[in-house]
Amino acid sequence: MATAPTQAQMLEALWARAEVERVMLNFGRALDTGNWPLYRSCFADRFRVNFERLTGQPEVHVDADLWTRFAKVILSPVRRHHQYSNFTATIDGDRAEAIIYMVARH
Q1: Which DSSP string do the residues of 90-104 spell out, in sequence order?
Q2: Could you read off the pLDDT of 11-46 as tens digits, one per residue?
Q3: Under a CB-based contact definition with an 8 Å cutoff, are residues 24 and 100 in contact?
Q4: What pTM was estimated for this model as a whole?
Q5: What's the burial of 39, exposed, middle or buried (CB within 10 Å: 0-12/13-18/19+)?
Q6: For residues 66 and 74, what is the distance between their CA atoms, to the nearest angstrom?
Q7: Distance CA 65, CA 30 (A)
Q8: Contact yes or no for 91/16 (Cβ under 8 A)
Q9: What span, in angstroms and rounded, lies between the C-alpha atoms of 14 and 19?
Q10: How do strand 60-63 and strand 81-92 relate by DSSP bridges?
Q11: Which among 37, 45, 36 has a CA at the least distance from the CA of 74?
């Protein structure tokens, strides 16, 4: 029989989930407001980008600074609006997996 988590464990889990959700919200807010330093803070120094379903091109690893500059150049001239719902974040030690529904208008 599994033991119930302690209050400290529950608090830690809630905090970790809130931090993951904060990054997801910062991502959209930064795009919408053109806050490129905040946008950059949402990424590790290198990360994977997979737009295969959209472009047919395979997943690639990108440099976060270069990706941020690309987003700034491409998106600054247009209005942007991102809306999120149905957050799910699963935390396992120092790893997290999250799913979020997003509607984006550019």
Answers
A1: EEETTEEEEEEEEEE
A2: 999 999 999 999 999 999 999 999 999 999 999 999
A3: yes
A4: 0.84
A5: buried
A6: 12
A7: 15
A8: yes
A9: 9
A10: unpaired
A11: 36
